[in-house]
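Q: Start with the shorter request: fold the first protein.
A: Done. Sequence, then structure:
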Amino acid sequence: IGWAMGHMPPEAVEPMAREMAAFAAEGQKAAVVYAQGGFAEITQVRITDYFGFLFANAVMFQLPMMVGTFLIGTWLVRSGRIQRAAEFRRFFAVLGVVGTVLASFFIAASVGVGTHFDPNTGYAQSMVAMGLMAIGNLPLSLAYLSAIVLLCTLPSAAKSLSVLAPAGRMALTNYLSQSLICSLVFYGYGLGLFGELGRAAQVGFVFAVFASQVAFSHFWLSRFGVGPLEALWRAGTYLQAPDWKPRKSAA
C-alpha cells in the first residue's frame, strides 16, 4: 500500500490519505478505550476491530503466513530433520546463517524507513516499514528454530532446554492464560497499562510471564498427567469426562 501510494498522482493520494487519517483517529480512540474502558466497552471495540481491519488483515496476510509456516513445519517433520537433528546439523547451520542474514537485512531496512510515524501523514511509510518487518519475520523464525535444534543436539544444552518441556505439554493452557494475564494487566478493567510500558519493560514482562508459566507447568504436571485445558479439550473431542486423576494413579 505504501509503495502504491508513492506512485499515485496527487489527486488520487489525497482522498486515500484522508481516509487513512480518519482510520488512525479511530485507532487513537480505541487505544483510549483499551486503557480506560470497562469490560463491555472494550469487548465492543474488539469485536468491531476484528470484523473490520483485523479480519481483513487476517484473511489477506496472517492466514497465508500461518499456512506457509505449517507447511514448512510439516516438511521438517516428515523429512526426518527434526527427529534426526544430529544427522542434519549442516542443514540447520546453513538455515540459521541464511535466516539471520536475510532477517537482519529486512529488519534493518524496516528500521531505516522509520520507527515513529505521524498517524495523519505517515501512513504510507508505516506500511512500508511494517511490510519489511513482516518479510523478515519468517527467516528470523527459522534462524531461531535452527539455533534451538542445534542446541538440542548437544547433550548438555538439551538437558538444560528440557526444563521448558512441561510448558510445551501445556501449550493450550499457557497460550490462553497469556491472553488472560495480558488483558488483566493492560486493559482498563485491569491495571490499565495499555501503552504505558516501554520496549525494554515489555521484554521483561514477557520473560516474567513465561517463567511463571514454566514454573506452573512443572507444578501441575507433577500432580496430573495433562494440563487443565488440554484435559477439557480431550474431553470435548472424545465426549468423555476430563481425567483429573493424579499422575501416579493414572499411571
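Q: Next, the second protein, separately.
A: Sequence, then structure:
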Amino acid sequence: MSSTRLPPAPPLLPAFVQLVRVGMRQTFAQRASWLGRSVFLVLILVIFERLWRAVDAEGGLPGFAARDLVWYLAITEWIAIGMPQPHLSMEAEVRSGEIAAVLARPVPWLTVKLAEALGALLVRMSALAVAGFVAAWLLAGGLPREPWGLALALPLGFAAAALGTLCYALVGLGTFWLGDATPLAWVFQKLCFLLGGLILPLALYPDWLRAFAEWTPFAALLSGPGCLALGADPASAAKTAALLLGWLVVVLGLLRWGWSRALVRLDGAGG
C-alpha cells in the first residue's frame, strides 16, 4: 500500500498570493464568462423590478418599496453569482485520477484550488459590482434611501462571497466519498436561495422560518449584506461581519479536517 506524502512546501503565503494572481489572470482572460454573468445579473434585476412594481402597486410588499428591493436583490445576486465554484474542477480532477499527479506539487492541492478560486472571485465580483450598481441605479431611479449602506455592504459582500467559495470547496471534497459533488452543490445552492433570503429579505419570512434561517450561515452570506441597502446600520453591519468571521472559522476547520480525511482515503485506495 502506498502512502500519500506531500513534498516540503515553499513559504505558503507568497505561494498563495501568486496563485491568487494566477486565478485573477485566468478569469480576466475569460471575458465572455464574466461579461455573461454581468448580463445575467442585469436581466434578473430587470425582471424582478417589474414584478415588484406590479406587486407594490397592489400593496403586497408591507414595509418595503420596489426601489428598496431592487437594491437588496442587486447585492444578494452580486454575491451569489460572483461566487466561483471550485468544486467543479476539484470533482473533475478527483474523478479522472489527475489528483494523483497534482499531489506531487509542493503546494497542497486544496490550497491551490482555494487560491485560484479567490483570484477568480476578485475579478468576477469587481465586474459584477459595476454592472449591478449601474443597473440598480437606473431601475430604482437613484441610490437607496441611505446610500451609506452600500459602502458597508461592499466589503461584507466580498467577505460573504469568499465564505461561499470556501463552502463550494468543502462541497468539492465530498467527491472523495460520493464520486459526484453535484447533489451537495445543489443542496447548498437551494439553501442559499431559501435560508439566505436571495430574493426577499428575511423580514418578510414567517417568524419561525426567519428565526431558523438566522442560525445558519446562509443568512450572513446573503441577507446580512443585502439588508444594508435597506438601511445603513453600523450595528447590523458589525453583527454580519462577526457572523461571517465565525462561520469562516468553522468552514476552514471543516476544510482542514476534510482534506486530512481525503488524504487518508487516498492512502487506503493505494494513493
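Q: Describe the second briefly.
A: The chain has twelve helices and no strands. The two ends are 8 Å apart (CA to CA).
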